[in-house]
Design a protein that fits this description.
heterodimer; A: about 230 residues; alpha/beta; 2 helices; B: alpha+beta; Glutamine Phosphoribosylpyrophosphate, subunit 1, domain 1; Alpha-Beta Plaits; 2 domains; seven-stranded antiparallel β-sheet
Chain lengths: ~230, ~300
């Protein structure tokens, strides 16, 4: 596998994305290094091939958004909406992320080694997110499908208005949002969690976590609860 | 939109480079706020018995010498002036409480944009790069600087509506967001004796801080109280005599990021503004949590006490 360098200072964000989008599906130039990202937005978005992208530094908003199949590593901090609406593949952040990491993600794996700030996994639709540190308030808001694993603590209103999705938190949960409850950790959940932790190269043990999910009282209309709506 | 940026030097050897380091930071925020720009820089502190006023007038050729001569004669005060663009730095032995009413009476079109011992505020409509050049900030030395690029939403594009807004001696405020209860709060503060120059929402936030501090509340407490008393979206950056402070509303949807190295602390709406600083690649970077007051440099204790 050959290494190819892309310098954002020289070719800009569009130059980088155009180059990565123009590669044929069967290209053997699969491994790309992006240097000088300078906190710019929308780096390596909308990739649809099994590329490996290493970004050497901090990025701005939406990095790896809409990703399909590519494995993107960010060696630094990532801004708002990292890997938003990801379909598949992997986005791996070595540092912290700003708010809304993994927002609306449909699939794939997002790993944040540091903290992930507020609204992590907002409206997630099947993505798996593993956060090594803590998440901020309103994380997994209106989550529909997928898994959110938090090795640190979770901020206020975790899982508010959640539909489906499994939330695993090792540390303290500030409080749970509407219709989000703690649930029993059964064998199948411990197995799922073990796989997620392994994929994210985490050392934590599944038995250290607690599981949270939907009470299913908010999203299916129930006439007996009409007063609560 | 709007962009806010702040740079506080921990390594004082960098003081001569402050203006130069800050320039790419504020220019990077141009597309978040192309309507006007402003900075508050802390440098060249005056003597204990002196006050430094940042004054502005729409007329670039305004006769500041005449103003200074009049002030000397009327208030029996010593004073020097330095014209910078359509702004003027007036250093005088007169205190704020005497000088400001005198200026208002005798030079009603002169705006007092800031006052204190080391603060200097410059703000003007136009692109950040032009504003920066106009006030020769590239060569500026100092310990810390905060800036704002404005995309006007709540009030007109005018110099008076540009940020930073002064909130007391050596204190100022820049704001990213919009407040929804500013009209009612303005009426309340007017009754408390605070005067307003614009219909701008941030001016109300600044006046709120001024009022709190006058009531004897500490700066940290004033910022903490602002989280409950101000309704709307905001990230505030407050410049103090010896540093700066950051606070965000409880929902925290107006972006903010902080980066810190051994040499400096920087705050910006987006990290790309900070990316230009030397050592940014190795900085510790995080998003400030909602309703938490972050401060560097002792939060202006002397002034806020």
């Amino acid at each position: 596998m050959s290494l190819n360098h892309l310098d954002l200072k020289k070719i800009g964000v569009r130059g980088i994305n155009e180059k990565l989008h123009s590669l044929a599906a069967n290209t053997n130039k699969k491994h790309w290094i992006v240097i000088n990202p300078m906190g710019q937005h929308s780096i390596a978005v909308g990739l649809a091939g099994a590329l490996q992208i290493d970004i050497k530094g901090h990025v701005g908003f939406y990095c790896g958004g809409m990703n399909k199949e590519a494995e993107i590593t960010i060696e630094g901090h990532a801004g708002v909406g990292t890997a938003e609406n990801m379909m598949s593949g992997v986005v791996w952040v070595k540092g912290n992320t700003s708010e809304s990491a993994g927002a609306t993600g449909n699939g794939g794996l997002l790993v944040v080694e540091g903290d992930a700030s507020s609204r992590c996994g907002i409206s997630m639709k099947g993505i798996d997110i593993v956060v090594g540190g803590s998440v901020g308030h309103m994380s997994a808001f209106m989550a529909q499908r997928g898994n959110l694993v938090v090795c640190g603590n979770a901020g206020e209103a975790l899982g508010d208005s959640i539909y489906e999705a499994s939330l695993y938190v090792k540390g303290k949960v500030e409080n749970l949002g509407a219709d989000c409850i703690e649930k029993e950790m059964r064998v199948e959940h411990l197995e799922d969690l073990a796989k997620l932790l392994e994929r994210a190269k985490r050392k934590e043990k599944p038995s250290q976590f607690r599981r949270y999910g939907s009470a299913r009282k908010l999203y299916t209309f129930n006439v007996d609860h009409a007063d609560l709506y | 939109m709007c962009g806010i940026v702040g740079l506080y030097l921990k390594n004082l050897k960098l003081k001569p480079k402050l203006g130069q380091m800050f320039k790419p930071m504020i220019i990077e925020m141009t597309n978040r706020g192309p309507d006007s720009a402003g900075v508050a820089i802390y440098r060249n502190p005056v003597k204990k018995n002196e006050t430094k006023f940042s004054l502005a007038h729409d007329d670039e050729k305004y006769d500041w010498k005449k103003l200074n001569a009049g002030l000397k004669k009327a208030l029996k005060a010593k004073g020097t002036i330095q014209k910078i663009g359509n702004h003027c730095l007036l250093i005088t032995t007169t205190k704020e409480a005497t000088a400001i009413p005198w200026l208002k009476q005798n030079h009603p079109k002169v705006r007092v944009v800031g006052s204190g011992h080391s603060i200097e505020i410059f703000k003007e409509t136009g692109l950040p790069a032009n504003v920066y050049d106009k006030f020769n900030l590239d060569a500026a030395q100092g310990t810390h600087i905060i800036g704002h690029t404005r995309m006007a939403t709540e009030s007109a594009v005018t110099t008076a509506g540009s940020h930073p807004f002064a909130t007391g001696a050596d204190l100022c405020l820049v704001h990213n967001g919009s407040l929804s209860n500013h009209n009612r709060l303005r009426e309340y503060l007017k009754k408390e004796g605070i005067e307003f120059q614009t219909q701008n929402d941030t001016e109300v936030a600044a006046a709120y801080m001024t009022h709190k501090l006058r009531c004897g509340v500490s700066l940290k407490q004033a910022l903490t109280d602002s989280v409950t008393d101000l309704d709307g979206f905001f990230t505030f950056l407050v410049g103090t005599e010896d540093g700066f402070a950051v606070v965000r509303d409880p929902i925290a949807c107006k972006h903010a990021v902080i980066a810190e190295t051994d040499d400096w602390v920087a705050m910006a709406t987006e990290y790309r503004a900070i990316a230009h600083l030397p050592g940014a690649d190795k900085a510790k970077i995080w998003e400030p949590a909602p309703s938490v007051v972050y401060s560097w440099g002792g939060e202006g204790k002397k002034k806020a006490a």
